[in-house]
């Protein structure tokens, strides 16, 4: 562990399960202090926090409902106030809703956008001044293959993830000479609690069994016919913080079993 890494702080939103938890664990294993964000109470988040801390780094929990604009805006400021800095920012929090556009509730539309897009704006805006002062920073936005391709019945999610990719590119251009990179990781279907929760909704919409949904809907676009593992996303996120990734910026990196190659 280098001294630089030992004193670096990473904020991971939506880090109590799935992709976010895997990313938090990877950075903890490398010696980072991990600011763990989730919607849970401190007590409910304790098992995930212990799992992260067990990897060897320090971990502190910062509960915030990122659908609430004020909480999202305050999150990164709270981390900086408590831990002194944010060197790596991973915007991972996200939710999903599957419904035809004419049946899509406006409350769900706005909540999806707030959690996946608006919160990224708030955290980036708060983290950048410190990164610029330090002459180093990494911004990693977890987008989706749906940031590059569309699917029916996912209007809010697809629109939001396309916007996240655009936000990433714009930020990368603005900070290109400041020692900061900004990239989006675009996973295909990763087996996480979020994806597992979609199975029943997809079965209802497509009038299929849950087994057929997994085989013929979820994995249909992935040529490998296999779910991506959260650890694969975590390893890419960590790679993007390394010196050999300093020229990778403004990129939308697909980890999707070949989905977007078609």
Low-confidence spans: pLDDT under 50, at least 5 residues?
A: none
Helix content: 40-55%
> What profile does the largest beta sheet have?
7 strands, parallel
- What is the name of the CATH class of the largest domain? Alpha Beta
CATH superfamily of the largest domain: NAD(P)-binding Rossmann-like Domain
Biggest sheet strand order reads 3-2-1-4-5-6-7
The number of domains = 2
User: Number of DSSP strands?
Assistant: 7
Q: Count helical runs.
A: 9
Radius of gyration: 18 Å
What is the H/E order?
HEHEHEHEHEHEHHHE
Question: What would you say the CATH architecture of the largest domain is?
Answer: 3-Layer(aba) Sandwich
Give the overall form.
globular
> From the helix content, strand content and strand pairing, which structural class follows?
alpha/beta
- What proportion strand? 5-15%
CATH-defined topology of the largest domain: Rossmann fold
Describe, in plain words, how this protein is organized in 3D.
With 262 residues, this protein is of the alpha/beta class. The chain has 9 helices and 7 strands; from the N terminus they run H-E-H-E-H-E-H-E-H-E-H-E-H-H-H-E. Strands 3-2-1-4-5-6-7 form a 7-stranded parallel beta sheet, sandwiched between helices. Strand 1 (9-12), helix 2 and strand 2 (33-38) form a beta-alpha-beta unit. The model has no long low-confidence stretch (mean pLDDT 94).
């Amino acid at each position: 562990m280098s001294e630089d890494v030992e004193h670096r702080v990473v904020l991971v939103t939506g880090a109590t399960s799935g992709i976010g938890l895997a990313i938090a664990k990877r950075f903890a294993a490398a010696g980072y202090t991990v600011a763990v964000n989730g919607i849970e109470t401190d007590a409910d988040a304790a098992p995930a926090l212990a799992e992260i801390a067990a990897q060897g780094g320090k971990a502190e929990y910062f509960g915030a409902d990122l659908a609430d604009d004020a909480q999202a805006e305050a999150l990164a400021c709270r981390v900086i106030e408590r831990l002194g800095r944010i060197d790596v920012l991973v915007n991972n929090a996200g939710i999903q809703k599957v419904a035809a556009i004419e049946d899509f509730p406006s409350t769900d539309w706005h909540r999806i956008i707030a959690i996946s897009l608006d919160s990224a704006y708030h955290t980036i805006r708060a983290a950048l001044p410190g990164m610029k002062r330090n002459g180093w920073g990494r911004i990693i936005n977890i987008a989706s293959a749906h940031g590059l391709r569309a699917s029916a019945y996912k209007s809010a999610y697809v629109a939001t993830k396309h916007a996240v990719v655009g936000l990433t590119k714009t930020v990368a251009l603005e900070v290109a000479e400041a020692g900061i990179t900004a990239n989006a990781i675009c996973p295909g279907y990763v087996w996480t609690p979020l994806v597992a929760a979609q199975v029943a909704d997809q079965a209802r919409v497509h009038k299929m069994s849950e087994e057929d949904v997994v085989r013929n809907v979820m994995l249909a676009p992935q040529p490998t016919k296999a779910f991506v593992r959260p650890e694969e996303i975590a390893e890419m996120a960590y790679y993007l913080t390394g010196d050999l990734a300093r020229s990778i910026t403004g990129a939308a990196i697909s980890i999707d079993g070949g989905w977007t190659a078609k």
